[in-house]
From TrEMBL:
Negatively regulates transcription of bacterial ribonucleotide reductase nrd genes and operons by binding to NrdR-boxes. Binds 1 zinc ion. InterPro entries: ATP-cone_dom, NrdR-like_N, RNR_NrdR-like. Belongs to the NrdR family. The lineage of its organism: Bacteria, Bacillati, Actinomycetota, Actinomycetes, Micrococcales. It comes from Microbacterium testaceum. Residues 46-136 form the ATP-cone domain. GO terms for molecular function: ATP binding; DNA binding; zinc ion binding. This is Transcriptional repressor NrdR. A zinc finger (unnamed) spans 3-34.
């Protein structure tokens, strides 16, 4: 790591701390030549292999912007989208791979988006999975309905008894 003050190509780590989310390390460094102190933040790189073969760094912002289009007109906040993007990134990092196919990112988005908003999920899935007919929508909606039928009914604590 080059010193930002004197450009010396060496520096000494004097303190390391893991970030709250555990995804990065903040290091306090000191230059042995000029004595200047500076901080660096290290993160594990995660690259996306696009369909064209181009490799680019993973971006939560790109996940959010792609999902934002599917959420137009829906009761979904930017905070919801940020949380979804974080969940997607965490799921991808858990695979242990430093490079991931763009298609895998789309698959990672579907689950959290379905939990967030089913209409946005259908919109995203229709583009991502290239729905070609109404039958594709019918199949996806039927699957959503079947999943709703198998969900346990939440206990509300309220009773229907009138006294």
């Amino acid at each position: 790591m080059h010193c930002p003050f004197c450009r010396n190509p060496d520096s000494r780590v004097i303190d390391s701390r893991t970030s709250d989310d555990g995804l990065s390390i903040r290091r306090r460094r000191q230059c042995p030549k000029c004595g200047g102190r500076f901080s660096t933040v290290e993160t594990a790189s995660l690259n996306v292999i696009k369909r064209s073969g181009v490799v680019e760094p993973f971006s939560r912002e790109k996940v959010m912007s792609g999902v934002r289009k599917a959420c137009q007109g829906r009761p979904v906040t930017d905070a919801d989208l940020a949380m979804l993007a974080q969940q997607v990134e965490e799921a991808i990092r858990q695979t242990g791979s430093s490079q991931i196919d763009a298609n895998e990112i789309g698959l990672s988005i579907l689950g959290p988006l379905r939990e967030l908003d089913e209409v946005a999920y259908l919109r995203f899935a229709s583009v991502y999975q290239a729905f070609e007919s109404l039958d594709d929508f019918d199949t996806a909606i039927a699957q959503l309905r079947a999943d709703h039928a198998h969900r346990p009914v939440p206990a509300s604590g309220a009773t229907d008894d009138v006294q």
